[in-house]
Amino acid sequence: MKTLAYPLLLVAAAAALAGCGSDPAPTAPSPSAGPVPAAAAAAGSTAPGVPCGDVTGTGGAKTAVVAHGKVDCAAATKLLRDYFAKLTPAEVNDADGPGPVVLDDWTCGSGPNDPVTACSTEDGRQVEGTRG
Fold it and tell me: pLDDT class for 44, splitting at 50, 70, 90?
């Protein structure tokens, strides 16, 4: 089950880094190209993000919350608070990083020693928490 977190994290990282290069933005696939996997659709539809303030993460660390897509800040901050509250000490200290943790429609997780927690849904909504 741990392997599910990595594709989600890769999508979040790719979306975050997409604006950093000098290459033009990728174009959306044509409708005739067939169905697009949910993770790829999420990456293609992710807006730059809306800063939503901070929450307290694991170990009391301040974590900046950013909402992408059709997610309001109240829902984004609640999601990350719930995620951090649900993590057990074993999950926090796992060599593969915490997650994936399912919270309703959301799946959240992060890699080992990764300051970014990524949460996403099948319909392309995303929330990121970056430890400060």
Answer: very low
